[in-house]
Design goal:
6-stranded parallel β-sheet; 17% strand; alpha/beta; globular; 6-stranded mixed β-sheet
């Protein structure tokens, strides 16, 4: 019988009903895993025929014993969670980790790619976290001789783990529409969202299309991912004169900024305006923000496992694949029925 689907740690997580991080720890017999969870994982892995990579296997073939995690910034919560989860997997598999922070600076990025040919002397593989690459940079990484995996980067020629951004935005927008909000604004991640249509903007538009509604250009503002970016975008939206009954922000931090701007304009959330984001930032529960949660740590752990598998199975490598993890709508205090 020929297997048409390569069993991954995600399959074990789904069958066991546990998170990928928990499954990863259980498979390696690490502490802080309950007996019940350990049994669930053992049974699921046995049923699927999945085995964790053996750490000792890496010692063959002149390995450096190190991998690099490349992130645009080291301070944002998303990257901190993903890095921590990935580092744990790498450590448990016998690898040291080198963190390369591009610091969102063009000069640092240029230096990284200029020195790429020398990197195989220091590390065996690269784990990229949401690094926006040009076609030339993709080609350079493909030909550098290192094993590569990534988080949050679709359409790449290596293993990637992420979420369906379009579906997440659709979930958030459907939530607002289901509450009776028809006059919706969007704080999008692109400067010209109506022209470029990022996946999250497409999800917003698709939800409106399904209700025979159109995107109003005056209710679309491009913004960055920070609280201050969201505050400026929401302020710009308010100065245009029209006031939406609900706002979808492309990420939670932009939504935090929107909450601040609305308060500064004397408006109450959700009494006057409902607000929803995407991510489930650690502060979202504290601020009562409705959001669509994504499993950040699981993405880091899963991608790290895939990279370890590739490093330990160089003779019979698996085909690169894109793995999408589920998102979940979390309704809190910033959204309510339109009155």
């Amino acid at each position: 019988m020929v297997r048409t689907h390569r069993v991954t740690i995600q399959d074990v997580a789904v069958l066991s009903g546990l998170s990928i991080c928990t499954v990863s720890r259980a498979l390696r017999n690490l502490p802080n895993v309950s007996d019940k969870a350990q049994q669930q994982v053992t049974e699921a892995a046995s049923k699927l025929g999945y085995k964790a990579s053996a750490a000792a296997s890496r010692l063959a073939g002149g390995s450096t014993g190190s991998v690099a995690i490349v992130a645009p910034t080291a301070t944002a919560w998303f990257f901190a969670q993903a890095v921590e989860a990935a580092e744990e997997v790498f450590a448990d598999s016998g690898y040291d980790t080198v963190l390369i922070c591009l610091r969102n600076k063009a000069g640092v990025r240029q230096k990284f790619f200029a020195d790429l040919e020398n990197l195989p002397q220091r590390v065996d593989g690269l784990l990229l976290l949401n690094v926006d690459l040009t076609p030339q940079e993709v080609e350079a990484l493909e030909s550098c001789g290192l094993a590569v995996a990534s988080v949050g980067m679709g359409n790449v020629p290596w293993d990637n783990v992420g979420i369906d951004d379009e579906h997440a935005a659709w979930q958030a927008t459907q939530h607002l529409l289901g509450l009776g909000h028809w006059n919706l604004a969007v704080l999008s991640s692109d400067e010209h969202p109506v022209v470029t249509e990022t996946p999250r903007f497409r999800g917003f538009r698709r939800a409106l299309d399904e209700h025979h509604l159109t995107v109003h250009p005056d209710l679309v503002v491009g913004t960055g991912p920070s609280i201050e970016d969201g505050r400026r975008a929401m302020t710009e939206l308010m100065t245009r004169g029209g006031r939406p009954t609900a706002v979808f922000a492309h990420c939670d931090e932009a939504a935090f900024g929107a909450l601040t701007a609305l308060r500064e304009h004397g408006l109450s959330v959700p009494k006057n305006v409902s607000v929803i984001g995407i991510d489930d930032h650690p502060m979202s529960w504290f601020l009562g923000l409705s959001t669509v949660a994504q499993p950040v740590a699981d993405q880091g752990a899963f991608a790290a496992n895939l990279l370890c598998e590739r490093l330990l199975n160089t003779e019979f490598p698996h085909q690169p694949s894109n793995h999408l993890l589920d998102t979940k709508l979390i309704e809190r205090k910033t959204t309510r029925h339109k009155r």
